[in-house]
Structures
1.
Amino acid sequence: MSPALPPALRAALEDLAGRFPGKDLAAASLRLTEDYKAGRGSRLPAPVDVAAYAIARMPATYAACASALAEARERVDAAPRTLLDIGCGPGTAAWAVTEAYPDLESATLVDTHPGMMALGRDLARSGPPALLAAGWHRGGFGEVTAGADMVVASYALNEVAPAEAARIARRLFSLAGQVLILVEPGTPKGFSGLSAARSALVDAGAHIAAPCPGAIACPALAPDWCHFAVRLPRLRAHKAAKGADVPFEDEPFSYLVVAKPGVTIMPAPARILRPPRADKAGTAFSLCTPTGARTTTVPSRDRDAHRLTRRLGWGDAFMLSPEDPP
C-alpha cells in the first residue's frame, strides 16, 4: 500500500488550501510545527489553524497509519466491518482504514475538538461509503461505550501521561472486537506512552501482532526508543505553506497492533529496528527477536542469504535462519 493520500482526499486538501491566504496558512503552519516539536498538544483555536493542521499533518499521519495498517493486514487474521476511531481529529486514520479494509461497512469517529470534526465531515464528503455515512461524536476516551471490530487511536496518547495512556489503552482494548491499533509520533515522548500502553495491554490479555515479534518486556531502553519512519510525497499546498522545495518528507512514528484472544495472529519472526549497516564484509541488522534485541550480520559471500535480505530496511520483518537462535 502506498502511503500517499487517496486522490479524493488529496484534492479536497488542495481545495481547502485555496480558501485561505497563503501567508495566513504559513504562519499557522509555523505555530503548528513549533507545538509539535515542543511536544505540546495541537491547540488550533481558529479555522485557519485547523486547515493548516490538515494540510501539514494529515499526509504524514495518514502515511504512518497506512504503514501500521499494512502490518495489521499481514499479521492479523481479521475482517473488520465496523470501526471506532477515537481522538479522530479530521478523520485521518479512518481514511487509512477504509483504504486498507475496503469492505468496512460503518465507522464511528470521536474527538473533543469541534473544528476538527467539522473539517473531517467536510473532507469525508469525498470519501468512500463508510466515511460518507460515518457517525461523528464529540467526546473523550472515557465517554465512548459502544465498541467496534477495529478500534484505532492515532497521535492521541502522546498528549497524556504514560500512566493515563496505559489506562486508556486498556479501555480501548475492551471496546475492540477483533483488533486495536495505536499509532504515535516516533519521538521518545510518543514511545513512552505507547510503551506503557503495551505493558498494560499484555497484562490485559492482548496478543501482540506487530511490530513486536513477541510479548516479552520491550528491550528498547532509554535513551533508545522503538520507532520507524515512512517517506511520503508532500502536497503542493504543504510545500507552499512551509516554503519548502523538497517534494517529500520522512515521518517518524511508533505503533502497536494487538488482537483479542481467539483472533489468529502471525507475528514477524524478527523486526529490523534501525537502518541496516552495510560494508564489504556484509550487512549488519539490528533486530528485535522473541527473546530480545540483538545484531546479526549477513555476509556478502553468502549470496543466497544476501539476495533474500538485500532489499530489507528499517521496520521490515526479518526471517531468522535455522541456525540462528531466536
2.
Amino acid sequence: MILPPRVTDRAFARLAEIAEAAGETRALRIAVEGGGCSGFQYDIKLDDPAADDLVIEKDGQKVLVDQVSLPFLQNAEIDYAEELIGSRFVINNPNASSSCGCGTSFSI
C-alpha cells in the first residue's frame, strides 16, 4: 500500500492566498519527471484535476498527484517555505537518497 504525501497547513494556507489573489481556485499539481541534475525533478504548477489524480483537499484547496508520480512521493511532506532567498512550495521526500542544492532535483 502506498502512503500518500501529506500537505501542511502552511501549504494549504498559501494555496488559499493564491486563489484569493487570482480570483479563482486552481489545484496545486505535484509531479515527478525524469531529468534534473540528480535524475528526477519535481514539477510544481497550478492545474486542473484529471480523472485518475490523487486529490488531497482541505477547506476547498486541492493538491493533485498523478498515479505515475505517487510512488515517488510516498509519505513525502508538501510544505510552503518563506526564506531570505524567496518563498516556494517545498517537498520533504523520505524516498530521495540524495538531492541537489536547488531542492527540485533528486535521486532514489
